[in-house]
Amino acid sequence: MGKIIFLPLDERPCNYVYPMYIGKISGMDVKMVPKSLMGNFKKAADVNAIWEWTREKAENGDILIVSMDLFLYGGIVPSRLHQLSSQVCRQRLERLRSLKKEKPDLTIYAFQLITRAPARDGSGEEPDYYEYYGYRIYRYGVLLDKERLNMITEEEAGEKEQIEEEVPLEVREDFLRRRAINYENNKRTIDLAAEGIIDFLIIPQDDCRAYGYAPSERRGLAAYAAEKSMFSRIYFYPGADEVGCTLLARAINQTAGKAPLIYPDFSSLRGKYQIPSYEDRSIGETVQYQLLAAGCRIAETSREADGILLVHPPTEFSLRLEKELISDEIYMESERNLQAFTERIKEYLERGQLCGVADCAIPNTADRALMQFLYEQGLLERIGAYGGWNTSSNTLGTVIAHLTALFHTDKDQGKTCAEEFRFFRYLEDWGYMAEVRRKVSDMLPELGEGVHVLNLGDKTEKVRELIEERLKSFQETYFKTAPWDFEIGIPWNRMFEIEIKLKTKKNS
Predict the structure, then answer these.
(1) 467-474 long-range CB contacts below 8 Å, 24 or more apart?
(2) Smallest Cα–Cα separation from 109: which of 295, 275, 238, 237?
(3) CATH number, residue 393
(4) What pLDDT, in 10s, does the model give residues 228-286?
(5) Which among 8, 13, 244, 396 counts the fewest CB atoms within 10 Å?
(6) Distance CA 160, CA 339 (A)
(7) What single Pfam family name could you report for this chain, choosing any that match (predicted)?
(8) Is the Cβ–Cβ distance between 76 and 114 less than 8 Å?
(9) Cα(31)–Cα(29) distance, integer angstroms
(10) What pTM does this model have?
(11) Does residue 233 share a domain with residue 202?
């Protein structure tokens, strides 16, 4: 098997731990950047040390998977905060050219995000001024984009002028200057792909919408790719944290010399055409991008397929569950038929086909209705892969990678690792995100003044204990016989994500 060198987007489990699972399942030799060289939230990784490590490992490597946001800026959050000059960025990009010259047979897969602009006030992962001006900065991007497209209304033109009066010039200049540098770096990365330095490139849109900075830049970058005769060879689609796993799946398929034939099946006929939150196109279109980016083939019928991607898409109703209809009630939607969906899953499993469930109905959490169906029908431990986290694209990419790794594994060790990763995802995406997170979040005011979901202050250990206690209760209810214990950590001192460390039970 080939040796893969992996430079992740950042140090969070979704970018650092998930790929290691995918590698172990497939049997691939994946060399991950040492954690000691990675950053921590707003602290950038040691870019120069990572470069030296990469050069050393490349001597005996076959494929390099590189996050350009790590390579250039030190991670995803530092890409939104840096004060790097265009010259420094250009010098860092040239490192890939020198690496290819030193080892011309090294295959390089890269991804580089189009920088996001969240539609809210809050400086958690953004510059400090985003706390006060965030939503207006976002709206300014929408209005600039519409102005360029000659779509701006008189009322919107007035809103743009008002924002220019309310948001200090130095704030707008700082935000736009950084975006301009990042945009130029995207173009230079396209140049590297056109020259054959980068063998495959994905430019994902992080938290995007129909209009704004990111869509405008995507159109510009696509046009630039066309000028370089790369229009059909570079993938542009919504995503971020899953892309490392996607490229790892592609590397696995390339190394094996074959790829799984995957059939997408949707739990809602209407949902296939729904645009998910934080994305700019229907989920049905994104599914095709995700499968092709991973190097998989798309089956026309279920019977010919090696595996089934079971997509639980959003609907107009389910998208309300994240922000409007928050309760402990499990909702039965009229625009999806879970009875029919689970019956098809059972049929696929009886045929001996691999099945992976991409739970995309509700942003940032599993759909409790779907999980109840899978539990009652005894399917939780029969499907091969599961995901239900963050955005639809995040979920799709990791589930497809998990399925791909399962397709290629031929060892009991790989199958056991796949089961462990599946349990990991149940514990995090269903247990934590859907069953525990909100309940513990509601308790935070009781722990002291200033403790909130985006900053746990000095109460991290107490919160960790509360989460772990409730997750163990969840495991006792739904996975009593699972052969793993676990401990959790809170990597960025907030409630959004946790870090789970599994360990085999002593008596298993």
Answers:
(1) 467/432, 467/436, 467/437, 467/440, 467/498, 470/435, 470/436, 470/439, 470/440, 471/427, 471/431, 471/432, 471/436, 474/427, 474/431, 474/435, 474/436
(2) 295
(3) 3.40.50
(4) 999 999 999 999 999 999 999 999 999 999 999 999 999 999 999 999 999 989 999 99
(5) 13
(6) 49
(7) DUF4127
(8) no
(9) 7
(10) 0.96
(11) yes
Instruction: Say whether 26 sits in a helix, a strand or coil.
Output: helix
Please check whether residues 234 and 263 belong to one and the same domain.
Answer: no
Residue ranges making up the domain that contains 134? 130-169
Q: What is the DSSP string of 152-201?
A: --HHHHHHHHHHHHHS-HHHHHHHHHHHHHHHHHHHHHHHHHHTTSSSEE
* Domain match, 61 and 195 both: yes
Tokens matching residue 223: 């046009």
Phi first, then psi: what are they for 66, rounded to 5°?
-130, 125
Which residues, 6 or more positions from 96, have their beta carbon under 8 angstroms from its beta carbon?
Answer: 66, 71, 108, 110, 192, 197, 198
Report yes or no: 161 and 66 within 8 Å, Cβ to Cβ. Answer: no
**What is the rounded distance in angstroms from the CA atom of residue 460 to the CA atom of residue 454?**
11
The pLDDT tens digits of the residues spanning 373-406 come to 999 999 999 999 999 999 999 999 999 999 999 9
SS3 state at 278: coil
> Residues 342, 374: contact at Cβ < 8 Å?
yes
Answer whether 96's CB lies under 8 Å from 51's CB: no
| Residue 218 to residues 65, 106, 241, 293, Cα–Cα distance (Å) | 22, 28, 18, 17
SS3 category, 101: helix
